[in-house]
Amino acid sequence: PVDVGDAQAQAKLLVAQSAEYNLGNPRTINMPNLPLELLQRRHRDRFAIALDGAGELRGHQLVKVLFAEKATPSIVYFGGQQDLLSVVRAWVDPASGELHRVNTTFTGRRRLPVSPRLDVDFERDRDQRILVPTLMREEFLDGSSGLGTGRATYSNFRRFQTSARIVPPPS
Q1: Helix, strand, or coil here: 17?
Q2: What is the pTM of this model?
Q3: Can you say whether the dihedral through the CA atoms of 138, 96, 38, 5 is positive or negative?
């Protein structure tokens, strides 16, 4: 059996250590799966939700849905203490519910020199037949100049696979 508490502690340590290697201030919000976490059903009551228009993106007719976090303490925070309320604009296929783009901004109750921002584009991977993150753009607080920007692209997705064979004990 896996000790869930130990696994969570190890995951937190891994994320914290990874944040130390970021350009600018250490942070843990620069991950393409963060908007997916914010949109999880368990957080639904934390957000005011409204339609925010429609548009076309890469040949898909999509609706924009706005999720504005209203509950504190917030899911994301700055400096270990200041709440950063999330505002998520999700570009969604109304027929399938597929997510094609997410624009996420974070606002504090106290004014920040720069409001952190994370934008992620998702596209269907031909081989995996699922939507995967392909581009992430970020604006973040940089300790020296105030504003830092980053761009990451993702490709060559592979599905983790394993196999096993049961061998009977010798008789």
Answers
A1: helix
A2: 0.78
A3: negative
